[in-house]
Amino acid sequence: MHISPNDHKQYRYLTLANELRVLLVHDAEAPRSAAALSVEIGHFDDPIDRQGMAHFLEHMLFLGTEKFPRVGEFQTFINRSGGSNNAWTGTENTTFFFEVSPHAFEEGLDRFGQFFTAPLFNEEAVDKERQAVDSEYKLKIKDDVRRLYQVQKETINPAHPFSKFSVGDLTTLEDRDGKSVREDLLAFYHQHYSADVMGLVLLGPQSLDELEQFTNAFFSHIPKTEVVKTPLATPFVTENEKQQFIQIEPIKELRKLTLSFSLPCVDEFYTKKPLSYIAHLLGNEGQGSLMSVLKKRGLINTLTAGGGINGSNFREFTVGLNLTPKGQDHIDDIVTSVFQYLKLIQQHGLAEWRQQEKKAVLEMAFRYQEKSRPLDTVSYLVLNLLHYKPEDIIYGDYMMEQYDQPLIEQLLDYLEPSNMRLTLVAQGGHYDRTAQWYDTPYSVTPFTDEQKTLWKNVALDPELALPDPNIYLCDNFDPLPLEAGSELPPQLIQDLPGFRLWYKQEHDFRVPKGIVYVAIDSPHAVSSPRNIVKTRLCVEMLLEAINETAYPAEIAGMSYNLYAHQGGVTLQLSGFSEKQPLLMKLILERFAGRSFDKDRFTNIKAQMLRNWRNAAEDKPISQLFNQLTGLLQPNNPPYPVLIEALESIELDELPSFVEEMFAELHIDTFVYGNWLKKDALALAETLKDAFRVTDQLYGESQRPLVRLENSGTLTYELDCNHEDSAILMYYQSQETTPEQIAIYTLANHLMSTTFFHELRTKQQLGYMVGTANLPLNRHPGLILYIQSPVADPGYLLEAIDDFTNAFALVLLELNEAQWQASKQGLIAQISEPDTNLRARAQRFWVSIGNKDESFNQRQRVVDALEKLDRVDMIKFIVDTIKPRTANRLVMYYKGNAHSDSESLDIGQPIESVTDFQNKAY
Length: 921
Hints:
By secondary structure, the chain is of the alpha+beta class. The protein contains 29 helices and 27 strands.
């Protein structure tokens, strides 16, 4: 098995007597043990009269087995063991996965293995979970991704299983003709869930022999059925579905053009990745690229290449373009440009050095790959196990063997007009059809003869160019020698008026990568909603100005980001460290030579308005979360406030705004990873030179927060235009001590499973039901939320209040072992070692921002958790969380389905946001 030299895990591949394929992974340093099982059955296998069956079955397997019959018991066990779990149903796969503290792994596998040998399909659970599937369907009924996906299903070959409805609802899963859906569920399970179409990955600090024992104990008795799965032979599209122009009406303001080409399955070529070669050139964003030229002409904002769905007998290759309003009027010209670029690739773009460049990038990524969370590792390995040869399970994603020009040419031949389907998603078109399930208006018209002629006979466009050799590819991959003190936490090595430099050389993860954060605080940047919006505009304009020249750096394994926050803006660089100073120099040069181009401004302003207006179409629970942070953090306004400010901002306001912004600032820089101290100090000089303004003032921005203190219950009603109702309840700690962080975090940890089980699984109030830990400006916060298609806010409030009133009793009923297990589960999560360089950098950076300059906050929270006993938690629930006495903010939305219901009549409504925010400090 080909393993990265940076990978210290041990692997063992085996096939059990029942033909279950297994990969065992011993990782001595794994903080948790994890398992994933994938079965090669998905919604393609749904019976035509039981659409959504595979998805419904995935839900049901979590709800009780012969050995562990109680509904919700699996989640409770996972939660107490400091873990997490999930599952998903795809077209031809259903995958289940979980992780727990290593000591609980054996019991976890015992419970998990039962899913595939002895599920109960308890009748009451079947009935209730059918409601959950229906709620999941209704939750996404106004989700444009689902709505557009449905049109795609209706416009490909109707005989192909992709055309089936994958989610399911109460009508597809109803009892009918004297036969219950449970009978069909059992038949589907016994027919399809066979060991020979499954893959299993176990990972943990346990030895390979111990993991193999677990495998034999819990998975060797999964039955192998005699049913032979018939390979998929129906074509994804036929000649009838090609050369069609499909127009779709979205709910959000979108303008997206997609060119789709239908190819045979290319999985067998994973060692050569020919489509990656083509997509790499077509999706390039550097100078002269297709994206660059179409952008300069004002026709598009973004371009992606190589996406599309795939299956065991088909592969779709797509080019997706987000259009400007002008672009929407020039669709034929844009498609012409795509074919001109494809012709350029065919005639001049096929060269072995390009493959070698791409291969070098993949090899670097493989050689210096960093660990991911155990749960993420098993999730991707289990799919590789089913799709790659055993020796390539680890390496397959990174392989790019010999250059095969005839194969690339063969695939390029499919990317031509007669094999294309063209889809435009934009508002205001003419439609003559409505998609089932999601009521999406759309139309399908054949290409005209003029279009066919235009696209078939294209000439080369002199403005289009292929990418040059990449100057950002690194040469030196040996990590730099360690200096004295590298094992210490970050050190403040420069503390000047308005400028602080933190530095740490990473001693543990020895990879040639670094991360640089530069936080620029400016009180002027956040002094009003209008200035906050100007800051975000300037960020977007600078990113746009950098993109074309910095794109090769991204290809070479470096990334950069610039983002606005409550104090100003932050620049972040990450990836291979050798060329990071070069990338920083480029970004600072672009900043110094900033130009405020009229067309760019108009385009970016329109994009931002569109994104923020589209956010107003998000599901109600997302809007409540956005409004919550907007209410409590004046420097983080909600979308309606941002939109109002942006609408009237003009280009000529920006140059003076930027000057004023940099007239008073404070910079915190953190240089971390594969960096020497002298190079960090040199980088600091470059930064100081770039941001030095005459007679500068130095000051950090304030980050105000509204404190609820003795507010009692406050309510805020939102307007959303959605069928479902939603409610969000927020409790805030007045202190930021480790003790308060510990008690709020543990309360969320203890409540989450019970809340989900009680209000979603048992009461079936909705699909989105949960609790969350939400610290704001270092103040711990606890949230309980529900989005419901069946109940109005008054009912939801009552259900949550009943839960919080009874929760102290739930705590009393825990035995001492359960109480300690829950606590230790959370402690294990909090004190989990950093998985990789990026995770550690982020933790240090958060500590710097939180003024935790000894970098031991995490340990102080763990110490506080150790001391917490059950009486403290019960007192907290009774004194702080109980509805009658609580200081809390209740935000809600009355869905269209419940428009006749009363507004909430509790506490004090927030009439004026301005007055409310005047209390912020």
